[in-house]
Structure formats: structure tokens, C-alpha cells
Amino acid sequence: MWILSGLCLISLVSAATVIELLGRIKLESDFDYVLVMKNRNFSLPEQIWNGSTLAKDIMERVHVPVLQLDEKVSYFLHNSLSRRLVSMVFLSSGNLEEHRGLLTALVLNLRHMTTSRVIFLIQSEASSEVAYKLFKDCWRKKLLNVMVLFKDYEVEERLYEPSLQAIAIFPDRLRDFHGYEMPVIIGGTSPRMIAYRNKKGQVVYEGTVGHFMMAFQQKYNVRFVQPLQGKNPLDFAPSMQTVAA
User: How far does the signal peptide extend, from start to end residue (predicted)?
Assistant: First the structure.
């Protein structure tokens, strides 16, 4: 089950669209700088950006510094710069294999910051298939807050009505895991961890650790699973031995 941002279709008719989006994101949750990434041989189309310099526009209108990198360069940003950033990644097409190096460099730049916000701008028409593949790849790379903006979308006639409901562009993905099965390794000894089977034959964990596990699963809507569970689920190693292993 995916807990990434849903598909977002916005026509990139000018740089103002992205600048406005960054401004809204900044109001929602402030950030200290923008990371812009694109392949070294990819130039932004003049008809889309009106010949303007993207980094200059962001710095002047959003009032944050801009760091520009390509697929050949990666830094451990977590150790040298603020963790409060928004990443903008430009893809010249929906063929993800052509941009594998760029995606790899992005993940290296965002080590220990994979919950930070990432915006992909794809210079192709909207495609649910491309978005699904990109979201799936981001999930495998542990990028949790992802938005996709395509070059164009099908125009529809709609009657809009004013609404006072505020919808977050990047909601907190770690507050609700939507029933995700999270792999864990359980260890401990009595009385901190007490395991037994109930009348239905289900394994129940009690004790301090058991109650913490139950409270955590209920609060964050997640379910713990043990991929490396032994033959006897009631028998597990003490916590220190488990950590050492």
C-alpha cells in the first residue's frame, strides 16, 4: 500500500506556476532552501520558462537559496546543510531508465532526509503509468513525500465553488501508515515482554514492550510483522542479544 502523495496534474505554462507552488508549500511548512536537480545535458524549454533563470526567480520571489546539482554530483546534505528543504527534479521524459543516474544521485543527496518534500517535473503529457512507476521507485528508495507535475493535462470544464477547507499539499506521511505491514524483530524477556496464545490461538504480546507495540500500532495505523520469526513465536532472544545480532 502506497502512502505517497497522489498524482498531481498541473500545466507548466510558465515558471510562475512552480514559483507559486513553492510559495504555498512554504506557507504550509517553512523550508530553508531548494535543491534543483536535472541531467547535465537537459535544458529547460524556453517556451515554458519564458527565458527566465529558474534559480534567480526562486531566490527573488520565494526568498530562499537554491542549490543546483546534476546526476554526476552528490553530497551528504544532512551533515552540512539544513534538513528543511524542498527538492525539485526535472525529467525530460517519462522514461525513468533514462534518468536512473539522476534518481540515484537524488537519493544520495537526501540520505537521512527521505521524509523531505520532493517535486518531480516531467516534460511529457500526464500518464498514470509513469506516475505509478515513479512512485513505486520512490517507495523502494524510501522517499515518502513525493509530488509529480506533468507538462500538460486534459482541459475540463468545471464549476468551482468556494470552500474554506484547507488541504495540505504535503501532509505528514508518518502520522498514518494506512495499515502498512512494518517488518520488525521482537526481542525481550519477562516481565518487559510476555508472549502467549489467546483462546483463538493468536499470539498476544503483553508487558511493557507489548503494550507499547499495541499503542504504537493503534496510533499510527500500522501492523507489525516478523519476517524472520522462529518456529516458536513465543520464544525469542533477550533484547540485547537481538540488537547485537
Answer: 1-15
